């Protein structure tokens, strides 16, 4: 769902610096040319590290992409708490919007999603990325339940997924601009549906 702010670099020793450089290079190539153009030797050259280091640590392109997604999940920004369900969902939607509208991150996600349709390990890594992000934001829905804004038994994870789904549709299907207005509409739709009981867990009365 959401990524880190572009250009974020964590402190660390040589191993951390090598990983940062290699993942940055892999992400750049994904964004520029797509998954089919990923090559470990090319990534090593762009990152300025030894080819053997890249092969020894990651082994395959799919292994490297899986690590890239894990790193993006680790560095993703934490949720925002505004005190209302709509405010929280708008904060989530706007973070997704900024990510998908970004000139690097948008194409990167398109490339990874395309690759995940045919690569089981990439698909697993992508699912893990989204699981981490949904888990991060789901508590804002639980807080809304506790405040009485939405019914008990609401599936907190489904509400968060409903926020980002329209924005990913726009990214992947060319369904219009991914702007703040689109983000706010997605959040408002999810909040309205949640209050109406649309996301009640199976077996709960509506």
UniProtKB/TrEMBL annotation:
Q: Which UniProt keywords apply?
A: DNA-binding, Transcription, Transcription regulation
Keyword field contains Isomerase: no
Report the source organism.
Nonomuraea longicatena
- Domain HTH tetR-type stretches: 16-76
UniProt DNA-binding region: 39-58
What is the protein name stated in its UniProt record? TetR-like C-terminal domain-containing protein
Alphabetized Pfam families for the sequence: TetR_C_11, TetR_N
Q: Where is the signal peptide?
A: none
Q: Supply the PROSITE patterns for this chain.
A: HTH_TETR_2
Gene3D superfamilies referenced in this protein's UniProt entry, alphabetically: Homeodomain-like, Tetracycline Repressor, domain 2
InterPro entries listed in its UniProt record = Homeodomain-like_sf, HTH-type_TetR-like_transc_reg, HTH_TetR, Tet_transcr_reg_TetR-rel_C_sf, TetR_C
């Amino acid at each position: 769902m959401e990524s880190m702010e572009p250009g974020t670099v964590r402190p660390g020793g040589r191993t951390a610096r090598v990983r940062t450089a290699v993942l940055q290079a892999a992400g750049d190539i994904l964004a520029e040319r797509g998954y089919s153009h990923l090559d470990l030797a090319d990534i090593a050259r762009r990152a300025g590290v030894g080819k053997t280091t890249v092969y020894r640590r990651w082994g395959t392109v799919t292994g490297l992409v899986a690590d890239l997604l894990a790193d993006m999940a680790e560095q993703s920004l934490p949720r925002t708490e505004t005190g209302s369900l709509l405010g929280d969902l708008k904060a989530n939607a706007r973070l997704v919007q900024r990510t998908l509208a970004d000139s690097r991150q948008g194409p990167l996600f398109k490339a990874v999603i395309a690759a995940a349709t045919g690569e089981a390990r990439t698909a697993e890594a992508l699912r893990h990325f989204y699981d981490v992000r949904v888990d991060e934001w789901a508590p804002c829905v639980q807080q809304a339940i506790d405040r009485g804004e939405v019914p008990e038994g609401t599936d907190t994870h489904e509400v968060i997924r409903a926020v980002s789904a329209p924005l990913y549709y726009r990214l992947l299907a060319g369904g219009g601009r991914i702007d703040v207005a689109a983000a706010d509409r997605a959040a408002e739709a999810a909040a309205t549906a949640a209050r109406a009981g649309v996301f009640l867990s199976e077996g709960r009365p509506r």
